[in-house]
Amino acid sequence: xxxxxxxxxxxxxxxxxxxxxxxxxxxxxxxxxxxxxxxxxxxxxxxxxxxxxxxxxxxxxxxxxxxxxxxxxxxxxxxxxxxxxxxxxxxxxxxxxxxxxxxxxxxxxxxxxxxxxxxxxxxxxxxxxxxxxxxxxxxxxxxxxxxxxxxxxxxxxxxxxxxxxxxxxxxxxxxxxxxxxxxxxxxxxxxxxxxxxxxxxxxxxxxxxxxxxxxx
Amino acid sequence: xxxxxxxxxxxxxxxxxxxxxxxxxxxxxxxxxxxxxxxxxxxxxxxxxxxxxxxxxxxxxxxxxxxxxxxxxxxxxxxxxxxxxxxxxxxxxxxxxxxxxxxxxxxxxxxxxxxxxxxxxxxxxxxxxxxxxxxxxxxxxxxxxxxxxxxxxxxxxxxxxxxxxxxxxxxxxxxxxxxxxxxxxxxxxxxxxxxxxxxxxxxxxxxxxxxxxxxxxxxxxxxxx
Lengths: 216, 225
Known about the structure:
The complex is a heterodimer of chains A (216) and B (225). With 216 residues, chain A is of the alpha/beta class. Chain A has helices spanning 17-20, 28-38, 55-60, 74-84, 103-111, 157-169, 177-183, 203-213, and strands at residues 7-13, 22-23, 26-27, 42-49, 65-67, 90-95, 118-123, 129-133, 136-141, 146-156, 189-192. Chain A has eight helices and eleven strands. A seven-stranded mixed β-sheet of chain A has the order 5-4-1-6-10-7-11, with helices on both faces. In chain A, strands 2-3 form a two-stranded antiparallel ribbon. In chain A, β2 and β3 (26-27) form a beta hairpin. In chain A, α4 crosses α6. The longest helix of chain A is centred in the C-terminal third of the chain and has 13 residues, at 157-169. Chain A is globular. The mean pLDDT of chain A is 90. Chain B is α/β, with parallel strands linked by helices and 225 residues long. In chain B, the strands form three sheets. In chain B, strands 3, 4, 5, 6, 9, 10, 11 and 12 form an eight-stranded mixed β-sheet that branches. A two-stranded antiparallel sheet of chain B has the order 1-2. In chain B, strands 7-8 form a two-stranded antiparallel ribbon. In chain B, a hairpin with a 2-residue loop joins β1 (11-12) and β2. The longest helix of chain B has 18 residues, at 68-85. Chain B is globular. Chains A and B meet through β8, β9, β10, α7 and α8 of A and β6, β7, β9, α6 and α7 of B.
């Protein structure tokens, strides 16, 4: 395994649900923050909210994390986090609504930046997929040619910063850093993941994550 | 799926997945008979579940093969005489692990299979979650027009029997029934699937299914077990 780059971790909070959803006694946000803080290679965690977060929540988690001011959308939120971060060679980006990520999984994605400018966690697809043209199947797409993006992403910091600057300057209609990197011509490697990484988006998925947190 | 027991034999909200799936076809007015394909070592248990379910349309329980493709072929062979005699017009291939298929979805597949010969329900892939993988393992754009496949997949009986026979002669092993029809050169039409018709693949799918049933307050002819 390559040496772990020193990284800043950016925890994106896109809405209030991760702050409020309880997953077996801890909020989704707390679980994600805890995993990032414990991930080998991560030197500091910057919280990048896209909504106003109450002072009591911010105060409760002021250490070990640093909070940025809310930004209207994802890419400016990540940019704001980078501006607030101390020195690092790599950046780990994760969403607070994916609370079951493990420190090991995070560091596995992070280590990929030693060899690649950008790395995204991806899981094997389970379903069969077809390419459809005018309502008729054109071909069956082999499963190994597809991946389901899940969980953390990692970038070389200088690469991500250039991508974000360009996205802003050229007003890209793009709300995802992986998509922005690809638009900028940055190759994104895939780290195959098996971790359960349920996204908590509603009461159903919150309940599901809670059951999974205790091993069903 | 992290358990030694076949998921379709497990209960969700007090009734097995298999029984719940059978209910959907048992209650559908266009479905005349059901053949269940199951692993040989599970035939007895499957038979007990079918008996207890009250599914009167089940006319056969067939031992499956080592692959999905082989199991479909075994099920189809059980229906071959009725297909050849014209008693059966349309054959539906369904996953036993999809207990939430709706009557409307079954209707759409049957109607399209009758008019076009082959039809399957799909969901167009939306958003950026599903991506393509390049030859060197980097992300790339997903193929245009990408759809996720569901079941039941419906076919003219003669068409799919001939297509499976061709596949057997060619040594072709399809990932689903539609690919067998594709291999034979047939056009397969897609109809609108639904998110509700999800397949129970993982332990969390079973939990999700229980939650769906709790929230809802509710309790082809070949059924792939």
